[in-house]
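HUMAN: Forgive my ignorance: could you write out one protein's sequence and backbone structure tokens?

ASSISTANT:
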Amino acid sequence: ATVSEPAQKCCTENIQPFLTSILEELMGPVSSGFTEVRSLFDKEVNEIIQDFQKTNDIMKLKENVDQLINLPFNSVKMEPCYLKVNLLQELLQDLKSRFKVYHIDFVIQRTQNFMQELMENAVYTFEQLFSPSRQADSAKVATTLEKVKLRVLK
């Protein structure tokens, strides 16, 4: 009871007025990181589609889809996504001094973990939606790949 009123007053006067601008500032790098994840998934699936259209090789397609499952764990390919979020380091330094925000590295690491999780979910969903179509006529496979990709991106 003794602390509640002063704490509420402090939050109302010193923190709440800045929350919207802080959130907007932080969402820029986070959004660009997640957009990069989406672009990477799109690029990788497009390469699989193009490779299949050139070769019509179902076995090669299966290998490529199986390799796609490893995409979230491929640090080289995921690095551009993670770098977008590293901009939070600079933004959070200002918050650290103004609002005593600590554990900046933890915020960045958790965001990158969510990005990896999103990619895991995307490739898993792609594989699950596409796997019944692997046995289909090769003329329909490319169209199915594209439809599945668009469904996952949606």
Summary: The chain has one domain: 29-153. Residues 29-153 form one domain. Helices lie at 4-14, 16-55, 58-68, 75-85, 88-99, 104-130, 138-153.
